[in-house]
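Appendix B. Chain record.
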Amino acid sequence: MPNQQLSLLHDEITQPYAIPRLKLLPIREQPAFRVAKDSDACSLAELLAVIIGGSTQIEAAEWLLSRFGSIRKIAQAHVDEISRVPGISNQTALRLKASLALGRKLLQPEDDRPVIHSPGDAAQILMPILAYREQEFLLVMMLDTRNRLLDTFEVYHGSLNSSMVRVGEVLKPALQCNAAAVLVSHNHPSGDPTPSPEDVAVTRAIVQAGKLLDVSVVDHIVCGQGSRWVSLKEKGLGFS
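Structure tokens predicted for this chain:
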């Protein structure tokens, strides 16, 4: 949104004579009442308004959606970007980010020790964590001898390439928790999970290092967007 428009919006919201729309609504039509009564029936703007709070919550929620276009874009945005929207402070932006992160965690399996029987089992856990990220993240899932998940560790994030990835750092968490095996995963912010030549090269290096350290590398999964992911083990890439 152009700075001039944001400036005009800020003036509109902060002018002392402007009456916030919240004050003009009957109690039963206010976002908080509607969320308490039936949150599933609320619009996205109403849900955001309740999280934002304050007298200009309705205006701020609508302008937040206008600025970013979708809840997915809001989830991807940095706190500083969100707090530039009039009516949203830095603390409110943090509250929004935390709420959206909780939503992602809600999609994760509740079992404390899920068993990884297949790439699909791993993808079910990884996709809510890695999908729709704007940067690349490299995670390592540590597994015991029965392929039960011990922990998931973030090794890198940012613009990754093969020269940046140190194999020792990838396998270090497994050695620290005495894991029998690891499953490596990273995301492609473009949304296309097709493995790159660098992905294959990194996988091959990790697999070879795992053999030397007696840590089995069971797979490397590349996560895209939606439900798209690719198992390099299934494709025979880097494991031969």
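Further analysis of this model is presented in Appendix C.
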